[in-house]
Specification:
This protein is 46% helix and 17% strand. With 548 residues, it is of the alpha+beta class. Residues 116-300 form the DH domain.
Length: 548
Amino acid sequence: MMMRMMMLISGGSIVSAEAVWDHVTMADRELAFKAGDVIKVLDASNKDWWWGQIDDEEGWFPASFVRLWVNQEENTAVETVEGASPSPSEVQNGHADASPSSSDCLCQPAQDRDQMRANIINEIMSTERHYIKHLKDICEGYFRQCKKRRDMFNDDQLRVIFGNIEDIYRFQMGFVRDLEKQYNTEEPHLSEIGPCFLEHQDGFWIYSEYCNNHVDACMELSRLMKDGRYQQFFEACRLVQQMIDIAIDGFLLTPVQKICKYPLQLAELLKYTVQEHSDYRYVAAALAVMRNVTQQINERKRRLENIEKIAQWQASVLDWEGDDILDRSSELVYTGEMSWIYQPYGRSQTRVFFLFDHQMVLCKKDLIRRDILYYKGRINMDRYNVVDAVDGRDDDFNVSVKNAFKLSNKDSDEIHIFLAKKLEEKLRWLRGFHEERKMVQEDEKIGFEISEYQKRQAAMTVRRMTKQKGHRSVPPGYPPPMDPMNPGQYLVGDSMEQSEFEFPEPERCKSPFWQSFSRFLFFYFLVFVKMSNAGQMHQSCIVFVIIY
């Protein structure tokens, strides 16, 4: 097919390809496109990466992402690249429709359906083999060579640039070996590859760490590439390994693209797999698993993008003590103001609570400037159970409660009781505690954590922003404009409406001291006038002392 294409191109024929999947690029010489775009193929000498043009833009793109057409004005398809791929109408919102189409599948002759399934199986096997080669090139061509140059790379830099690429390489080799065992070379449509995805489903979670680290890898590479030595070194590595002419960041993007492509391939395979096929229920289950994997990876990536907001929020809280929030947490689950009673003191206090994964932070509003928060402690959520409290007299505190719940220490008799203003608010808190525990369990399952490099980057960003503002004494307004909540929304149960957190930036004067002092004098003046009219001048002095 390649020879035929090159003959057509050299002979002046119009060779165009229609994109069936979005191609998101990171390298300068890659060509970005969306499903449905038409690409003019200029060079197809490499079977994996072609050189093409869209309008005035030229660059490399993966051949498996397109459907090939020749003389497109005649609207005649001649061959599908790497087997069958879904048409643009079948690709919506980044993935193909998993349900079999009656027009595409049921009405097709059995022979055509078998051929389409065989094409898709062949495409999956071919792309897996090529992917293994890419991983090998990264590990042997780049990573091993970088480890030899201790004068250019330290351990932290290697960890940031390559992440867990060697773990992914080892996992993929085992996965491909099992795929090969299930692959029917003589009759590919009879292959049963669904069970392979199910058997290895836990292993795919290692992509989460790599994808979360990928943005930092690109930033570090961009910084190094400003030095000509590193440009020459990486180019020499590519030439020695005989890799295609793509920059290193393009190769490092391959695992990110691969994990996102699995749901698309499985959805297309399911479409051309009849329900009577022995592989049908396994492919359906594998599709659900891989969609969940990619969804969770995207969610973890979103959380990492929010860590700077969390660091900024912590910087706005005065009198902070102890560890940073990012040492244990990465997501704000819920926040609100409640009354709080804590044994053994038994005195009710009003506090603003911020529930993160693993911990809940307690803050107090300033008496005059209500937009200023002071740190007052935190509760380790890993050590407490959440208990609903019935309205009425509480036996533990001997007080009447309403809309309350408790946090009970698992290892001692320590109990905290919280009183919300409304029942709806209490239910949202209970829902928030449930989501917090669920998030912690999922993070433990896939080994999600914030790297030290990411923490340092967040801290540097906060310091840079604080320096640009010129001072630290004026904290952000409460609730903070850079609240770590994901774009200001928290989803509650179906029976409850959605609670939104959208905090406008408060107006601030140049000096909070003089603003607070002027408010205080005005307040005292009103008290003074009122008491003077009642002939109680001496009591006004007492009020002044107490307020002061």
